[in-house]
Amino acid sequence: MVELIGYVAAILTASTMIPQIIRSIHTKSVKDVSIVMLLMYTMNTALWVTYGILISAKPVVLADGLACCAGITQLIIKFKYNNMKNTVAQSIAHQTGP
């Protein structure tokens, strides 16, 4: 029963970033997504994975491994859409130049 609770918690933890990932992809907007929050989230989950490995806690490793992957995915999306926005803005500025 205790392990079942761990796996349910693992699924919930691993899925916390999914709504934001889906929204970011659909809207192609990440302006309201904090880079600091994403970095802290990803580092936190990576540390939990390390901890889970050290104590041989499979639910912790599973949950936070997937959550870390989701954090990395959202970071990639953040950089991708920020770069697209900056590239478009630079292109427009260059075309309308002085």
Written account of the structure:
The protein is an all-alpha fold and 98 residues long. 84% of the residues lie in helices and 0% in strands. It has helices at 2-14, 18-27, 35-54, 58-96. Helix 1 (2-14) runs parallel beside helix 4. The longest helix has 39 residues, at 58-96. The mean pLDDT is 86.
Concise summary:
The protein is an all-alpha fold. The chain is 84% helix and 0% strand.
Q: How many helices does DSSP assign?
A: 4
Total DSSP E strands: 0
* Beta content: under 5%
> How would the global form be characterised?
elongated
Which structural class fits the helix and strand makeup?
Answer: mainly alpha
Our Rg estimate from Cα atoms comes to 18 Å
**Overall mean confidence score, pLDDT:** 86
Q: Low-confidence parts lasting 5 or more residues at pLDDT below 50?
A: none
Helical content, roughly? over 70%
Quaternary status: single chain
Order of helices and strands: HHHH
Distance between the termini: 69 Å
The major pleated sheet works out as: none
Give the helices and strands, then pairings.
Layout: H1 2-14, H2 18-27, H3 35-54, H4 58-96
Helix pairs in contact: 1-4, 2-4, 3-4
Characteristics:
single chain; 98 residues; 4 helices
